[in-house]
Amino acid sequence: MKDVNNNYYVKIKPKMMKEFELMYKGTKRILREQYSEFEVESFYKKSKEEYGKLFRKLPYIGGKKNGQTINVIMGAIILAIVFPLEENNISIQKIGKIIFDTFQLYFDSNPKFIMKLIGKFLLTRFSINKMKKNMEKSQKREYKEDFVMEYIESEKGEFDHGYNYLECALYTLYQKHNALKYLPYVCLGDYALFKSIGIVFKRTQTIANGGELCDFRLTKHGETVHGWPPEKHKEWNIQNNQNLSYRSKL
Length: 250
Description:
Shape: globular
Helix content: 40-55%
Largest sheet: 4 strands, antiparallel
Number of helices: 12
Strand order of the largest sheet: 1-2-4-3
Number of strands: 4
Strand content: 5-15%
Order of helices and strands: HHHHHHHEEHHHEEHH
Structural class: alpha+beta
Radius of gyration: 18 Å
């Protein structure tokens, strides 16, 4: 297992900062509904400063050769957004709503026809085969703090494609920064993503909420339910069962 720090994120700093600006554009819209322009700019400057510190320390999991790298980057952006809000004693639930709405606005800001094309491509045989290979590769655990995934075949046709996250890089990242309480809200961003690309997405458990794994199930027809409010999702309620099996492995 490799523990690599080759300054990959420093090398792609312009791209990472651009991604931060795109996401925070939505965050500003949300914050302006509740705070003054002065306060919003203060949050923004602090978040940008935090992000500048964070991305230099992110775990290297293969760079552009690993499609999951973008999830690490997005997770770091959300952390940077959260820290200044937390310092102002804003409640976890309120911050959670800001996280979800930020994802929603981020995905909605892209042209709809492009998002739909992405969704169609992800369900092609070529894309699925590539996904399977990448998941098999992840199980070799070549890099520390990487995601580990497995492909799930549908036995009864209840879904078209399925996969599980067995280990979560974001769980490790958020744990390091004492921010695990916000991770379930980050996971809700998946509902906004799949809804925007036109893929029906279902999930019954997440590692962030105390599950043993994250079970993603995708189908071509139908509509993904809205991610908010979180209490309506089965994955959210698993935390009430005190299922801490994943944590016990760490």
